[in-house]
Structures are given as C-alpha cells and as structure tokens.
Design a protein that fits this description.
Layout: H1 7-13, H2 17-48, H3 57-89, H4 103-107, H5 112-169, H6 175-209
C-alpha cells in the first residue's frame, strides 16, 4: 500500500485513496476465498459419484489451500500494479489543479511571514481585549463603591436635614446656631450624666455602710 498521505485527495473525495484501495483489496480477497469454498464443495460432490475414489476430503482441503495460496500470491502482485495505476491516474489530483474551496488562497495569497504577522496581531488584540476587560471590571467595582459612598452621604444629609428641623423647632434658625444649640445641650447632658453617676456612687456607698 502507498505511504503517501494524499491529504489533498482526501479533502476532495472525503476519504483517503489508500482507504479506498484497501477496501477494494479486502473485497477481492473475500470473493477469492468464497470462490475457493465453492470450488471445494463442487469437487466433494463430484467425488460422491465415485465410490471407489481414494481421494479423501482432507486431501481435497489441502489441495484447495495450496491453490488458494497460489492464487493469493498472484493476486497480490496484480493488485499492487493496479493500485499503483489507480493512485497515479485515477485517485490523484494533479499539482496544477486547485479545489473550489481553495480558490480564496489563489485570489488572496500570503506568505509565511505575513501569516506570522497576522498571528502576532491577533495575539496583541487578544491581550488588549483582556486589559480593557480588566480595566472595565475595575471601573465597575469603583462605580459600585461610589454608589455606596453616595448612599452614605445621602443618609448623612438626611440626618442633617432632620437635625435642622429639630433645631428650628427649638428656635434656632441656621446651621451655626443649630450646632451651638447641640453643643450646649450636649454639655448639659454630660453634666446630667455626671451628676447621676455621682449620686449613684453616693447611694452605693450608703448601701455599703448599712
């Protein structure tokens, strides 16, 4: 069998020429074996008509096998020549023939260097895409963080609005006055807490003395 891969022919036919020849060879060989079995069975039937014949079925089988081996050797030689002719003249695509699906290579030819440059450009674009995707992800994370900060600021503004309303209810008009009001009330609360703590200590000491 031929060792040439014949890849272009396989692209056109949908199978390798060597596979085709192998199947033809197996088909011929199977047919040869079947014919030998038929010939053997015919000879055995003919011998049944000669009761005094001294040829045994075992001898017939040995002779059939020898004849089959002889036929197979000659068949292999003939098939080898037939395979060579078919692979060269029938199943072979000439070098100057271009398949329809490869016409684009003829219209837009490119060298090995151009192909490598194209591969490098693709690789560079892939790296650029990954970098942009990573930057986009970082921007989205930053945007989410800004949203969270904005939400906290809105809460603080709401708190100040509520604080301003409370201060207005107590007669203070602007933020400065409100802040001074809160500071004054905070000091008052601290004094009250201190007074409560001192009274609590005195009560504990009194209880201990009792």
């Amino acid at each position: 069998m031929s060792v040439n891969p014949m890849a272009y022919e396989a692209q056109f036919f949908g199978f390798t020429p060597q596979t085709c020849m192998l199947r033809v060879y197996i088909a011929f060989q199977d047919y040869l074996f079947e014919m030998m079995l038929v010939v053997e069975s015919v000879i055995l039937k003919k011998l049944d008509g000669f009761p005094d014949c001294k040829i045994s079925p075992f001898q017939i089988r040995k002779s059939t096998e020898k004849f089959l081996l002889f036929m197979k050797e000659h068949f292999d030689k003939l098939f080898s020549k037939m395979e060579e002719v078919l692979l060269q003249l029938v199943l072979n695509i000439p070098k100057n023939v271009l398949l329809p699906e490869d016409k684009v290579h003829e219209e837009y030819p490119y060298s090995k260097e151009q192909f490598q440059a194209l591969q490098d450009e693709i690789h560079q674009l892939q790296q650029q895409y990954r970098a942009e995707a990573s930057a986009g992800q970082a921007l989205r994370a930053e945007l989410e963080e800004q949203k969270a900060v904005r939400a906290e600021l809105e809460k603080i503004l709401q708190w100040f609005d509520g604080l301003d309303n409370i201060c207005r209810e107590h007669g203070t008009g602007n933020f400065k006055e409100s802040f001074a009001f809160l500071t004054q009330n905070s000091k008052k609360l601290q004094d009250v807490l201190k007074d409560i703590e001192e009274k609590s200590k005195k009560i504990k000491k009194h209880d201990q003395l009792l």
